[in-house]
Amino acid sequence: MPVVDVNGLPASEVRPYHVLITGFGPFSRYTVNPSWLAVKPLHNTILNIDSPAEQITVDDQIPMVEANGFAQDVARDIYLTTLQVPVTYEGVLAIVPGLHARPPVLPPSADPDLPDIMPPPDGFDLIFHVGVAGRGPLRMERVGHKFGYNMKDATGCLAPVVRVTREENASSNRGQSEPSEMERMERARLIEYNIQAPVDGTEPPKRGFGKGYELFPEEIFTEIDVEKLVHHLKKSGIEQIYSSLDAGHYLCDFIYYCSLAESKRASGKVDKSTTKVLFLHCPPVDQPLSTEEVTEAIKQSVIWLCGASKSMLPST
Fold first, then answer.
1. DSSP-based three-state secondary structure for 56
2. Which of 56, 199, 249, 314 is the most exposed place for a label (fewest CB within 10 A)?
């Protein structure tokens, strides 16, 4: 399909928000990942935070703008782009840094039904990652983790081995001898993806982010106020959602940490980023939320971040 240049579309008087939403590709029993099912309908669409309606798809490269129910002093369109990311550590490390470049570098679309998009020259304002978890409510994640990736990815590969000093290893292992509840859930859900077992009673090597990520901390929190966002979504009728501090130490956690770190790297500031980053865990389809309900939660989150909470994203 031809590349669609959203930067050449009819624009309002103010710069639009540019939002990238990612979902994951096939893995395990999912020939189509539930996260991608929820994200895909938003590809190449426009929201307008001015008057009520729903977004519509760009058709034949000529988009029409419809609006949502949030009022704002100056209307700003929200251009949505979606991207499918493979469920592999190598794929995440190869793709995510480019998403935060200026201009962003996006790989070719992995979905033949969707056109490629020419990314905004000055980058995305928000990168919103979505991945599937187990049965239950939506989980809006607050933090990504640097180490602890001991489960094999969709191709049977492990995360990179990280070489650390003895002191660093002792520090990072403190209180982490047992997997967290969310990690245990991930292990149970991904039973066919073997976990690296200790050899001769020794500890398995530390895996996660090494070269190029030495200066980043072991945990990176999103700069978005997740609690306020979750509160807003509950008030808006999306009740089955809560905030989480444990993204599971698998590919969802991996892409979240990578994206948070690359956002800070791109801004040149360790304590502040230009592109805001967020991650949402969704359940498998109809367990209990439908794909349409997950898509609506994503839309409402983007609308709130770009409209009702102006301090969350760049204003110019």
1. strand
2. 199
